[in-house]
Amino acid sequence: MTPDNAVAVTVHPAWLPDAALAPLRAQPSAVLGAGPCLDRVRSELRSGGRGPAPAEARLVVAPVEAVASPSSVGLDALPEVPAGGHAIVRTADRTVLLGADGPATLRGLYALAREEAVGRMLGRDAAPGTTTSAPEQPLRMLDHWDNMTVHPVMGQIERGYAGGSIFYADGEVRADLGRVRDYARLLAATGVEAVGINNVNVHAHEARLLTDGLGDVARIADVFRAFGIRIFLSVSFGSPRVLGGLETADPLDPAVASWWASTADRVYAAVPDFGGFLIKADSEGQPGPFAYGRSHADGANMLAAALRPHGGTVLWRAFVYDHHQDWRDRTTDRARASYDHFAPLDGTFADNVVLQVKHGPMDFQVREPLSPVLAAMPRTRLAIELQVTQEYTGQQRHVCYLAPAWREYLRFPLDGSRAVASIVGGSGASSPAGGVAAVSNVGDDAFWTGHPLAQANLYAFGRLAWDSTLTAEHVLDEWIALTFAGAGLDDLARIRAVLHEVMDGSWARYEGYTAPLGVGFMVDPGTHGGPSVDGYEYSRWGTYHFADRDGIGVDRTVATGTGFAGQFPSPWRETYESVDTCPDELLLFFHHVPYSHVLRSGKTVIQHIYDSRAEAVEGLDGVEAAWDSLADLVGGAVPAAFDARVRERLEVQRASAVEWRDQVRSYFWRKSGVKDASGRVVY
Ligand code: GCW
């Protein structure tokens, strides 16, 4: 039998090393049912068909429909199996895993491996009894901003920090999709069920995937199907013109609608379980319905009609704003744009449209409030969009474990009572279900994600999309237990302690040395790396901090500013409106304050800026020392290449963090003339 990772001898197995599956493979198992995902279950378990009868096996794995009776799998009664999820029954002598369907059964198998690994690491045996697990979000999707060709400015993957694309090389879909298969396997193990395979900025060459490229799209879909994952294509709203030879892409023109309908027919002929279209319209230069005087609902609904006969979905992005602003004009506020465009359209989108909303009103900054759009459209299916790729959070050169941030967003009671996860997941109220999407951080790098520790972000995304009540620390434990499943227990305990020290506080640390108190950006406009305190200050992109000699921040109040705070429902509009109740970490997002303003922490804004930049960099001493303490495990429990890559990145991180610290501190000293009371050097 071919080992699963045959193509990938030099590729790191991430959270599915053989050792993670070994405990399950060691048990005499029986697998029932048919289909690509069940074939995959059999190959994961290495069960070649000569196994025991189900009633005698130690491990039984089956989609519930394949089980004729409880006694056929050695049980007295069958458990309830939740939609999209699985049930695990443990008795004294057997484990029975039942999935809602083939994909859910495969995900359940990986869940079982995870429970084994975590139980081993923490020294806990699984108790007899029945447990069930169901996805909180129906849509759990990763978006790839991959181009087929290498873009002169953006590289092959827009905002990618882990090498080239695993899907495409030299302008073509790769002949060998081995890496895609390994990736699909990793994703299935986290619960992800959909993938967008090309950049939302659809360039001319990639636009053709929708037509000429369908044979290759079908090959990619075949790979993902075996792991229970559907694929989506990013499409250009201008396709009827660019690809179809029509003179217009006007969504209300019957010829346009019919072009899309016949195009969708051809897509589904090639890929019967195709997910649908992901679309960035009227944003950052992409074509859209505005050119024809039509609304975004007109545009989305026309595409939805084309997909409807096939059960497909339109994922329409809400990232729409004016990127040709004038910094002199204080009335235009980019933060307001998405709500201004979309909130009035609530209730007008077809039911196979999901509006995909970035988590914050700006653009994936290390700290933003939630987007008020998420609370403003109860009659629209919504998906929150997160960013796993670390565009603004250290570009996979800095350690920045993002699960604490995502969990905060997903659990935030944005409409005053319900968590964002419930709003988008459609639970507990009348709002229809959407889900969670995120931009992937994966490339053809041997560690998948450039920084090996950034794998944990990819893992955590899937897990929190499945269940946002998991703690970030627990999710990290799962990732550690699986990734280092081959380590002896004592070594594993040390690795675990070190990784928590390195990663638990890494988001806060990154925030600590970069742009302060929610003000955002301070990066180079091209690369989005930093520091560049005034990088965007006089740009057209609408991302300003307005620092002068007296103070800093953006007045987004209703009383005296842009009015953005008023887009939130109570209590948040009041909370953010008042400088007295606005949380410190968002102060400069909502208010322009003097440097002498005293934070709720008791420090002045300027002293906070000075202290936290320095303290965050000082915190890296502990991080580096912790990693160093594993030196004797390198070449054993910690692969040498893994260690080398982590060390290389830690060095880069320190150098960059020092630069951030020194530039930000000096900048504000020069602007304000206020001395750093701590006496630390200001250059
Ligand atoms: O964060 C910004 C990025 C763009 C990206 C855009 C988007 C794909 O800088 O590179 O374009 O967001 O989300 O569409």
Question: Main attributes?
Answer:
globular; 19 strands; alpha/beta; eight-stranded parallel barrel; 683 residues; binds 4-O-methyl-beta-D-glucopyranuronic acid
Structure report:
36% of the residues lie in helices and 12% in strands. The chain is α/β, with parallel strands linked by helices and 683 residues long. An eight-stranded parallel beta barrel has the order 6-11-12-13-14-15-16-17. Strands 1-2-4-3-5 form a five-stranded mixed β-sheet, with helices on one face. The protein has a two-stranded antiparallel ribbon with strand order 7-8. Helix 9 links the parallel strand 13 and strand 14. The longest helix has 33 residues. The radius of gyration is 25 Å and the shape is globular. The N and C termini lie far apart (63 Å). The protein binds 4-O-methyl-beta-D-glucopyranuronic acid (GCW).
Strand percent estimate: 5-15%
Largest sheet features: 8 strands, parallel, barrel
Rounded Rg: 25 Å
Strand order of the largest sheet: 6-11-12-13-14-15-16-17
Number of strands: 19
Q: Quickly count the helices.
A: 21
Whole-number mean pLDDT:
96
Hetero groups? 4-O-methyl-beta-D-glucopyranuronic acid
| Head-to-tail CA distance between termini | 63 Å
Global structural class: alpha/beta
The percentage helix is 25-40%
Residue runs with pLDDT of under 50 for 5 or more positions: 1-9
The oligomeric state is: single chain
Shape: globular
